[in-house]
Amino acid sequence: MQAIPAITVCLLLSCAAPASAANYCDSPRWSIVHDKSYDEVMQIATKRDKIRDAECGFTDVILRIQNQEAGIERYPGILLIADAQDERFVVTSRVGAYTIFSYRYNDKHLLQFAMKDHRWAEGEEFQAGAYKITGVKEFKTITGFPATLLVVQTFQFYGPK
Q1: Which tens digits make up the pLDDT trace of 93-150?
Q2: In 3D, which of 68, 69, 66, 109 has the Cα closest to residue 89?
Q3: In 3D, which of 42, 154, 58 has the Cα closest to residue 102?
Q4: pTM of this structure
Q5: Which terminus of the chain, N or C, has fewer Cβ atoms within 10 Å?
């Protein structure tokens, strides 16, 4: 019988993936979707609402739209999972019942979306979690140019509908 060197056993044990490593979208610990797989997220979401799909990251989705890699019209009805990177968005303005969140990604990209919720304070940081994309809406910028933004609402995974 041949003995396995102790270092090999240690490496094998440390490289094994933990059983609960199904963290869809790299959601932070405080997110409602932390430690859930895509299938678990969809199973919960479709029981609560008419959700077609789930995607990760407001930053990634908005960049795909701005870079014309994806059309904005495909997103309503999708559950969008905000990750830790998305907490860089902050409230920059309020337009009627809508709150506008913005994040200066780089010199070329100002990323924005709207939430139909006026309870957020100006300067408040966005929170990781699950949000349903309810549609798109055209807003006017400060300089008067039209801007078409995704409109989202918070999504309750648990509790009353």
Answers
A1: 999 899 999 999 999 889 999 999 888 999 999 998 889 999 999 998 778 889 899 9
A2: 109
A3: 58
A4: 0.79
A5: N
Coil, helix or strand at residue 18: coil
Which residue do the tokens 């993936």 mark?
17
pLDDT above 60: residue 6: no
Burial of 54 (0-12, 13-18, 19+ CB in 10 A): buried
d(CA 25, CA 22): 9
Indicate the average pLDDT of the chain.
Answer: 82
pLDDT at 27: 75
Helix (H, G, I), strand (E, B) or coil at 152: strand
Alpha helices in the chain (DSSP H): 6-15, 38-48, 58-66
At 152, list the tokens: 């989202």
Do 32 and 23 contact (CB within 8 A), yes or no?
Answer: no
Q: Residue for token digits 């780089």?
A: 106
Taking alpha carbons only, the member of 104, 78, 80, 81 closest to residue 28 is 81
Note the Cα 40 to chain centre separation in Å: 16
CA 61, CA 47: separation in Å to the nearest integer? 24
d(CA 34, CA 41): 10
